[in-house]
Amino acid sequence: MQVDISELRREVGARKAFSFCGPLEDGFPAGISLAGPVEVEGTVLNTGPAYLVEGSIRAQVEAVCSRCLTPFRQVVEAPLREEFREGSPPPPGQDEVSEDSGVEVWFFQGDVMDLSEAVRQNLILALPTQPLCRPDCPGLCPVCGRRLDEGACDCRVEDVDPRLEGLRRFLNPKE
Ligand SMILES: [Zn+2]
Ligand SMILES: [Zn+2]
Prior knowledge:
- The chain is mainly beta and about 180 residues long.
- About 10% of the residues lie in helices and about 35% in strands.
- The protein is built from 2 helices and 7 strands, in the order βββββββαα.
- The longest helix is centred in the last third of the chain and has 11 residues, at about 115-125.
């Protein structure tokens, strides 16, 4: 995911559109992985001191539902807004933050900016922390483990009032 900015150098305010569709290095949180190529489109703007990248990211991910543990696929969309500056990056731990936009500054050398890592980080920020196969997933039966969206099981999930426990035993002597 590289953009050649050589044609933007001469003029502050020059802008260039880009789009990519390709794989991305993994490193996603456990339980989530890419299910296909990542689509990125946007523009690079020469702001004078830096190059501002603005665009959007779209990817299909495979996740495991946090309630029913079923794998499912979901489209994740994330905004992309990053500032790139020419030069060497500062030492680790001293990340520079842009005074204009407040975002972290990325550094590049030569004519080509590599957006891959910025795309990856923005995508990770947009991933669900508790993936759900659907918003109202009923989850699993706590007794038999059956997926409750396939139908109710025969398990009795009871929350018996302890004061009534004696009465229940009296009415169900076989238990
Ligand atoms: Zn589910
Ligand atoms: Zn059950």
